[in-house]
């Protein structure tokens, strides 16, 4: 059972990282537009309405996998925690883009700058939360703090997006 969980945890990143890499390139291309102040309003959407990755299912699977084997080696627990943090970060990225699509040029620029500040603050806060400096537990502590901070931001952005969806519902 232990080997199956560890194998599963090792396979998930391979499937998931391609999406993160593509998303990163996309973010970089959008960042240059926003920082240049160009921020064009696309006639369509950046995220197609039909695209619905099952990140919640992946997150639940990772959480359940990490709970089933409480005697897993520290390295496996660190990997599971990092994978959960990566999933939360991907969810945040998707939500951020969805929110950006609903805003006018000025508010997009404001959100972009706010997100830049928030990302720097998240990294600093996650680093400060690590009490096991240099130990094998440090990556687990960092990932757990990173996930918690990211989940809080997800709640904040979802609250902002809901009223906008009430005014302009997403196309189905």
Question: What does the model show?
Answer:
This protein has 172 residues and is an all-alpha fold. The protein has one domain. The protein has helices at residues 2-35, 55-68, 74-101, 105-128, 138-167. Mean pLDDT is 76; it is low at 4-9, 14-18, 24-36 and 38-43.
What class do helices, strands and sheet pairing give? mainly alpha
If you average the pLDDT, what whole number results?
Answer: 76
Please state the CA-atom Rg, rounded to the nearest Å. 18 Å
Helix content bin: over 70%
Which stretches are poorly predicted, pLDDT < 50 over at least 5 residues? 4-9, 14-18, 24-36, 38-43
> What fraction of the residues are assigned to beta strands by DSSP?
under 5%
- For the terminal residues, how far apart are their CA atoms? 42 Å
- Give the CA-based shape: flat
- Helix-strand sequence: HHHHH
Given the structure, what is the number of helices? 5
Q: How many beta-strand elements?
A: 0
Biggest sheet character: none
Q: Total domains, how many?
A: 1
Layout of SSEs?
Layout: H1 2-35, H2 55-68, H3 74-101, H4 105-128, H5 138-167
Helix pairs in contact: 1-3, 2-3, 3-5, 4-5
Considering the chains and any ligands shown, give keywords for the structure.
172 residues; mainly alpha; 5 helices; 76% helix
Summarize the structure.
The chain is mainly alpha-helical and 172 residues long. The chain has helices at 2-35, 55-68, 74-101, 105-128, 138-167.
